[in-house]
What does this fold into?
Amino acid sequence: MGGAVSTGTDNSDLIDNLVEANYIKSPEVQRVFRAVDRADYYLPTQRESAYKDLAWKHGHLHMSAPCIYSEVMESLLLEPGLSFLNLGSGTGYLSTMVGLILGPYGVNHGVEIHEDVVDYARQRLESFKINSASFDDFDLCEPQFVVGNCLQLVPGQLYDRVYCGAACPVEHENYMKNLININGILVMPLNDQLQQIKRTGETSWEVKNVLPVSFASLVVPGDDNKSDIVIAPDFHFLPLKAACRYSIRKTIRTNIHKEHPELHKVSKPKKKKPTSLRSRRPINIVPMSMGMMILRQFDSDDRSSLGDDGMDCTEDEVPIPKETICTFMKERVNELPIPSTLKSYLVYYRQ
It folds into this structure.
């Protein structure tokens, strides 16, 4: 049995493969996958594995396979302004992509059982804000991470969207379902299925099986730590200063895209020679702590990305602009008649 898509040469190529295989379907999900480079959430010594359709684990760090994250993002049906809870938030990769869709008026919380992983996720978030070439193309709802067991959350705070990154024990199914608002969506592995669960009333839900999977189970609290409750971050209103920053940046961004429409264009997926069936294949999964590994069986003559002459062939490929939106954003902000301290604030202190 094999995995879902071929290995990418870089993040853009990996996303092309996910789009071609119909794991990524909506333009907005594709856009945020391209904006957040998966390799930036790997350890520097292991970046070469980032664009394979495999899960990754190192110590407590874990990331699911790209095809799984694609299904999760599509199943969450995200919209700007929603509240989101990520249970087993790991490196923060998924939470960052979600935050790019939620925008400045959303809520983006993550619960992770390992403190060192939370520290790592916060570092990766700061690196994304400082170094990402796509950061200025969005208004990020910054993830807030807390340490703790997600099965010990203080009850009462409900969310519009919830994702659980480990298999839910059957006895905790109702606990999970009651974390979402009416009309909210929960995506989680249950009974070897990745499920999309929509809450339709106080005691009613609609369940859809998305994909067969096999995740390691959530850590069930033992008798010695049942009193270790977890308090999620509060929901809070956006401060006026931050709201003004978002409004100014949005106006500048809109004008930049009017002047440079090529910045919104991305290359279409490569047109590949149909040497093998590109429909979804069965997925072979090895459970791991708070995640999984997906093993793909590569065809011995896997040359589907090559044309008849052995060369890559593309269809209507759009040239990559030499200048990014970050360049134009900094230029426009520097032209504003405001103090330098406010200019730095507007660009998030990026150099």
Remarks:
- Residues 273-320 have pLDDT under 50 and may be disordered.
